[in-house]
TrEMBL record:
Protein name as catalogued: L-ascorbate metabolism protein UlaG, beta-lactamase superfamily
GO molecular function, one term: hydrolase activity
InterPro entries in UniProt: Metallo-B-lactamas, RibonucZ/Hydroxyglut_hydro, UPF0173_UPF0282_UlaG_hydrolase
UniProt organism field: Amycolatopsis pretoriensis
UniProt keyword RNA-binding present: no
Limits of the Metallo-beta-lactamase domain: 23-214
Gene3D superfamilies in alphabetical order: Ribonuclease Z/Hydroxyacylglutathione hydrolase-like
Amino acid sequence: MTETLGITLSGGPTALLELGGVRLLTDPTFDAPGDHPIGDRVLVKTEDSVLTEEAVGVVDAVLLSHDQHPDNLDDRGRAYLETVPLTLVTPSGAGRLGGTARGLKPWEETQVGPLTVTAVPALHGPEGAEPTTGEVTGFVLSGSGLPTVYVSGDNASVELVREIASRFRIDIAVLFAGAARTKFFDGAPLTLTSANAVEAAKALGAAKVVPLHFRGWQHFSEGPDALRREFEKAGLTDRLVLLDPGQRAEV
């Protein structure tokens, strides 16, 4: 088994993770750029996802932070879930998706091959956001002889990151950043800002930080330049692994 994490960014929150011989896909988004209506608003996708369903190929599981927003699960992403053996998601998400979806409560574990996958809490916005934005989860991946990987999902709370850091020694942090903003909560960020991604990296003590969810959608308010700037300001550029869509790294 490999002792590194292979990660390929497709675009937005979607990346292929390869760890311990297990292949995992985060938040599948495959639709072409364009409008995605949700309620009385529209989320606009601005870049193609580089990986197609065929390019991703067979995966052992999908790690889905939540199912209720199209920038994390779009139309083709939903169709893709019907082809995979397991989708790990929130309990409410599993109820909506059915099929192979399995809901995990915070701190609940399951096995995917040699990996232990632990669901960890996430908050999609400021304190009190859950009734509006819905239930969201992150994940911690661990296994014998393997780096421990935190996949944040759409989380905006550094306090929750600190709680996760108190329970796990994280080697690699895959952080959903981008400071997503909509009309809700007076435009407060719904995911980590670049500055808060730095704070999360410090709290976790992670050797490497791989951001996702920072480009490809109009409501992502902070892109790669902001991430570079904040990590440089904090003297943590050696930890930052900033991928372009389609790029693969071993970390």
